[in-house]
Amino acid sequence: MQEINQLFNAELDLQITGKLSKHHVYQLGLPSDILLSAGLPNLPIELNSVRLNEKSIQENHPYSLQLLQNLPNAIQNPLSVFRSATRLGHYVIFSEIQHGGNNFVVAVQADVQRRNIFVNDIRSVYPKKSLQVVNWINEGLLEYVDKEKTSEWLSKQRSNSADVRKLLGSATKVVQDFENPKTIERTTKQRSNSAEVSNSLNFKSTTKIIQNSENPNLIPKNNITMEQRARDENAQYTAAPSLETMMAEAERMERVNLSENLSKDKEILSDINKGGYYEVENHLYRNPERTQHLLEKYELQKTYDDIYKQSRIKVTGSEEEIYKAGIEERRLEQKLKDDTGSVLQKLQLKQEFNKEENLTQKKILLWNRKMKNNQNKKHQLWKPSWVSLLMNEMA
Questions:
Q1: CA 284 to chain centre
Q2: In this structure, what are the phi and psi dihedrals at residue 142, rounded to the nearest 5 degrees?
């Protein structure tokens, strides 16, 4: 790790003096045990020099590139790691590097394909306002925290606002009570077309397993027993179902599909009811069309959009605006959960009604069949025997 850190510093000096290739990509090594335990996959961490330069001159948080000396060490040994509140598979690393009283954060998108390999791609590096980080802690976004260093950092934050002091106290308690995940064993998750990467993976043993495996014997198409052929021939002459049977089956399938759709809706809505905005983002990532349809169908879209607006204010606003946005976001989050709970209750009642309706339809169908059978038997009983004899002789 020390070599990677020294190489990064040397390359950073070249970028500062304008001697680094314009499209250079910094290599920051594989994630440390801390980052792995926080959820990052065991893939190389990369940073594009063009993106780094753009972030350093961005109007809302400009800074000197010189401040980022030893960035690899700072990333691998962070104060804390957060999951993104708005994007699945994104993480925010809170570092010890400071500028203007604020610590730098490093936004990482995990498991991204770049060229012919998958990497952890650094999307942004910039100093973050302290109150915004405090809000992340209180919102339960922590994935890892260095309790001693983060508690010390919190103790140094000062404010004249009683509300902000209350937030700081709450965040300190969250940090002290937080249980860090156990460090996990490193596993290779690399996928690549590169010969260099392929050589590092044990493809030989995999190839050997495939070559030695035996597929089950397949019966030739012509080798069909007489019994099978007889069954197939008889099946061709099976009577077609009646119109009544086909209509009943179509109605049954329609009810089954409706029930399945309701069950799928309930599954997604149940997750949103428990996890709120984060679960909406989760399902939008996994099943965007269905989730978007549910938000519009059950009138949850507006609340979701309002929460997103407040989350953006917390990124760009002043301290007062961030504080108000945090309060409003929590209120909207609860509204989203409550509204989803009401929808779930209605769906449960609808599902129970459908079950009762299905049972009633089934009873009616059975009753009609019974009456029809009885009617046929009645005609057979009243048919005189001499009529049958006469019809046989005429035939």
A1: 7
A2: -65, 135
3-state secondary structure at position 353: helix
Q: Calculate the average pLDDT of the chain.
A: 77
Kind plus residue range of the DSSP H or E element containing 50:
helix 49-56
Residues in the chain: 395
Q: Of 211-220, 318-327, 382-391, where does the model show the most confidence?
A: 318-327
Q: Which helix (H) or strand (E) holds 373?
A: helix 319-382
Q: Find where tokens 């060229």 sit.
A: 115
Report strand pairing: 90-99 vs 142-145: unpaired
* Dihedrals phi, psi of 21, to nearest 5 degrees: -55, 140
Exposure string over 68-106, b if 16+ CB within 10 A, otherwise e:
bebbbbbbbbbbbbbbbbeeeebbbbbbebeeeebbbbb
Q: What is the pLDDT of residues 348-382, one digit of tens each?
A: 777 666 555 555 555 565 666 666 666 555 444 44
Q: What type of residue sits at position 127?
A: P
Q: Which helix (H) or strand (E) holds 256?
A: helix 243-275
Buried/exposed code over 214-223 (b: 16+ C-beta within 10 A; e: otherwise): eeeeeeeeee
